[in-house]
Amino acid sequence: MAILDYASLTTSDWIAASERLESWTEPDHIWSLRDWSALRAASPELARYLEQLTAQIGLPSIESRQGGLNSLAQVLAMFPEAPEAPIDSPSGQRQEIRRFRLAWRACAWKLAFPLRLQREKLESLRQLAYGASHEINNPLANISTRAQVLLTDETVPERRHKLAAIATQAFRAHEMIANLMLFARPPEPVIGEFDARRWLDESTSEWQVFCEPQATRLTIKAPSKSVRWLGDPGQLTQLVSALVRNSCEALGRGGSVELTCEPVKTTLESATRGNEPTWWQWTVADDGPGFTPDSLHHAFDPFYSGREAGRGLGFGLSKCWVIARGHGGEIEIESETSRTLVRVRLPIGPR
């Protein structure tokens, strides 16, 4: 791991930065520092350290960035281990830097643990969904078949209406089970190289279908040059479509949805190894009503609905989670009262 030039930070700076990190006992304390000014006000010493860290690996200044690395939580997610102290540092300073590194690691763990817990929960749900789908699907098929057979011989209008309702509802339940099976045992992505710029141009019209009828402005920021990606373009279109549709449901009418695509580095090791990024990061942001805390906690659960809170949550985000994981990537959500951002990271090369 690279060693940073810590000359501009004194022993008292390290003590102050460590105490600040140790005071943030909950993930929400860390997430609250969403921009540079908030972080600088909370801990100028920690802000100076982060400037050193990003400068060391060749990233733009945190203060000048418009997106991406704009919160302490994102920095901790990207760099779970703080760099080591220089060998020639005074012994007192080395001791404080060790304390700082432990506090940094603890904060990174506090952020990572809920994400790991969520992944384990969803994996358990997938196992449950797979078993339940098989058990429920067979009796549903029998109910639907019997209702249709009886319907062909029935002549009484009232009975025909009831039998038709049974067949319709059984078919509806079958569709729900099919979606559940898709979550439990999704098809393997057909990974291949494709032109991302062409894919983007072809998919934009599909995303506009959700925005135009409700006068929502869709903005796309992505590399203008032709770029070769590895992935399943069909599944990736479904992923982004589900996110755009979810944003439009939150907005209702008007508002804006912004899609951003950029190459990023997510670990200090990969960043110091060279200048090549290791991930493509998609962000889909809208200015509609955000998730409630409970809705955010269940956002990726299949068939969980938070429509009463103003945001349609059903199978869409579960599908996004499945597709991102199938590509070796990850997905996360940040939400405030009037802004929601979904971040999807997909590997540039094979995983």
Classified by CATH, the class of the largest domain is Alpha Beta
Residue stretches low in confidence (pLDDT < 50, at least 5 long) are 59-70, 267-274, 308-313
Mean pLDDT across every amino acid position: 76
What Rg, in angstroms, do the CA atoms define? 25 Å
In total, the number of domains comes to: 3
Reported for the largest beta sheet, the result is:
5 strands, mixed
- Class by SSE composition: alpha+beta
What is the end-to-end distance?
22 Å
- Strand arrangement across the biggest beta sheet: 2-4-5-7-6
Task: Furnish the topology, listing elements before pairings.
Layout: H1 11-23, H2 27-31, H3 36-42, H4 44-56, H5 72-78, H6 91-153, H7 157-184, E1 192-195, H8 196-211, E2 217-221, E3 228-231, H9 233-251, E4 256-264, H10 268-273, E5 279-286, H11 293-297, H12 316-326, E6 330-336, E7 339-347
Parallel strand pairs: 2-4
Antiparallel strand pairs: 1-3, 4-5, 5-7, 6-7
